[in-house]
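**Reference record**
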Amino acid sequence: MDTLVHFFQSIPYDQIVIQTMNGIVTGMILALVASGLTLIFGIMDVVNFAHGELFMLGAYVGVIVLVATGSFWMALVLASLVVAILGAALQIVTLRPLIGRDPLNTILATFGISLILQNYALWQFGPVARKINEPITTHFNLFYLEYPWYRLVIAALSAAIIGSFWLFLKYGKFGVWIRATTQDRVMAQAMGIPVPWVHTGVFAIGAGMAAASGVLFGPLVGVNHAMGLDWVLKAFIVVVVGGMGNLGGSIAAAIFISLLESYASIWMNPSQAVIVSFVVLILTLLFRPTGLFVPTPK
């Protein structure tokens, strides 16, 4: 008991507050990435291995627009639109012909798209990371640090995008079509809903959300051709822990896992703290394979 008390007394509370804020910021970006991935899987039953490259392309388009216009917010909007259109084209050309075939075909197709996009970015932009300047450069005092306001803006914007998407799903006509397709694809088509175009629209929305995440997070890490790899891996972990196809569960799992990694980095190297997310994934698969944040049927 004395050892436990001593342990809690030795916890650096200032670092916990700082890491909590870092975890929430990272968690909201991860939630935005995972929401698009969850949406695509929930509607289309497609495991999209190219999602990380859509995240990366969004960041690169953001760099191009930022250089041309000087406006970060214009870059955010145009990058989302451009990558959403690209996502729709990819779905029509490569994934729509594979509907009804072995799921392995779509996995291989998205993996191939991932390799093509990543190597195209390397060829076009080179291996040197590009910089996106933060639109808000002011800081506020947080214990011994000057904490950037931009990090809080990221969390707020991510929450706003996810909230707007939730309202769209609940009240928009196309959102109703998406929910109907999720529940029963055959019945939705029998009721006159254009299911193939719903699939295209869903893939485009997921791609646009990934692109927005790339632009928002670009100023913190720099933009390079491999930046999507870590994020898509974490997004897949979030989707499994939150429950496959469960949007709310993915958001909760993203924040939960990001906070765990942030807290773990207080006592270990940040590169080692990533192990925590894999431990959570393994425990989830062993004891709650449907997902930690999926309600238990009564």
Q: What stands out?
A: The chain has a mean pLDDT of 83.
